[in-house]
Specification:
Strand content: 15-25%
Number of helices: 18
Largest sheet: 6 strands, mixed
Number of strands: 18
Strand order of the largest sheet: 6-5-7-1-8-18
């Protein structure tokens, strides 16, 4: 006798089945502490054991350049593709971005050497417990005092204090932003407009000290992915340009240098149809009991009306649980989504959603009315899938 249809309903994705970032051994948060430890900076630990110390270290972070995207585009990025075997100290393996795999979170992890649950930028938008408002941590809106929000010193500040020549070479626009202040300050900031100018100056800054720690950054690949998708000619053109920038920097590396090419996240294209784009603003079930919707389409922080937390969790699991990992705040912490056990600061706890939803499939939870710009993007990121989470750590030494 056939069982009723209800008996055949699929179980929600288990929280424990999410591929958690490699905090403490192979995440973005481990990169600068490992390099700084090799430079003799006090208090730093070499937590990526595959890396060998160098006197002069340069990190070139290319926004949106995921590991899988390099592997899939050998023709557009022949030089980067040729370096895949050098990744993570010659193991040929990627590292992980951290959760969520988004720019503000990842840059804070890079600069502070801390996981999201400690540095306190655990998403694109999160609730400010002091005001009850959503805080956009990329654009820093509404304005919030930066240092109370992220009080830890950056690795660049610690390196500079230890006598290491520390410098950031980036767009002049980023020099005075609050995100730069809390994530990447320390040493000297040098603004240059073009990618070529940044590569040339990064090489000069590497040579400026016997011990150097230099960071440089390129954002336009990510912008092309958001607007046109990683399958677009525009994105592939940007990838070709990035490939040439890396070569340009390599050709100018001074002696005793190590260059590490990495990224803050990868990206996935999401089709524009109701099957792949679920609209929170048009779904009464998902809206029920929700006071604030934070995060972004593939990594949501959901803040419930007081007393409705369990009901919201149950509903979201029923509606989204086959396509998203859906966890309560405490479940996500226990599973290690935002850091290892004991790494979640008390000040950060209430910034995390009462419910957190991370996409497994090629789907997006948009909010067409409250987030019209973000809801229209082709390329997206944030979750723990390999396409978003895995980033390169390509290495060239002189």
């Amino acid at each position: 006798m056939a069982q009723p249809a209800a008996w055949d309903a699929p179980e929600p994705l288990a929280v424990s089945s999410a591929p958690v970032p490699e905090y403490g051994s192979g995440s973005l948060a481990d990169l600068l502490p490992t390099l700084a430890a090799g430079l003799g900076v006090p208090g730093m630990s070499a937590t990526i054991p595959e890396l060998t110390p160098a006197d002069r270290n340069c990190v070139f972070l290319i926004d949106g350049l995921g590991w899988e995207q390099i592997r899939a585009h050998p023709d557009e990025a022949p030089y980067l593709h040729s370096l895949l075997g050098s990744s993570r100290g010659g193991t040929g393996r990627p590292i992980t971005a951290g959760f969520p795999a988004t720019t503000a979170t990842s840059l804070a992890s890079v600069g502070t050497g801390l996981p999201p649950g400690a540095h306190g930028l655990p998403g694109y938008t999160v609730r400010n417990p002091a005001t009850g408002e959503l805080m956009n941590q990329l654009r820093w809106q509404p304005w919030t005092p930066p240092l109370p929000w992220q009080p830890y010193p950056t690795v660049f500040e610690l390196a500079h204090a230890a006598g290491v020549h520390a410098a950031q070479v980036s767009s002049p626009h980023f020099e005075t932003t609050p995100l730069t202040k809390v994530a990447l300050s320390g040493g000297t900031f040098l603004g240059r407009l073009t990618g070529e100018e940044r590569m040339d100056l990064a090489a000069e800054q590497l040579a400026a000290g016997d011990r150097s720690l230099v960071y440089t950054y390129y954002a336009e690949l990510d912008g092309a992915g958001h607007r046109y998708g990683v399958a677009s000619d525009t994105w592939r053109g940007q990838l070709m340009y990035v490939d040439r920038l890396v070569q340009r920097l390599v050709e100018q590396l001074p002696p005793r240098s190590a260059l590490y090419v990495t990224a803050d996240h990868g990206m996935v294209d999401v089709p524009f149809d109701e099957e792949h784009r679920i609209d929170f603003d048009e779904d009464w079930e998902l809206r029920a009991g929700v006071a604030l919707l934070g995060g972004e389409g593939r990594a949501r922080h959901v803040y419930a009306v007081p007393g409705a937390e369990n009901d919201v969790l149950t509903c979201w699991r029923e509606v989204l649980g086959e396509q998203f990992w859906v966890a309560s705040r405490d479940e996500s912490i226990a599973a290690g989504w935002f850091g290892r056990p004991g790494q979640i600061d008390e000040r950060v706890y209430a910034r995390l959603g009462d419910v957190i939803a991370a996409a497994r499939d090629d789907v997006l939870l948009i909010a067409s009315e409250r987030e019209p710009k973000e809801s229209s993007m082709v390329g997206n990121h944030g979750s723990m899938t390999p396409a978003e989470q895995l980033v390169p750590l390509l290495e060239v030494r002189s």
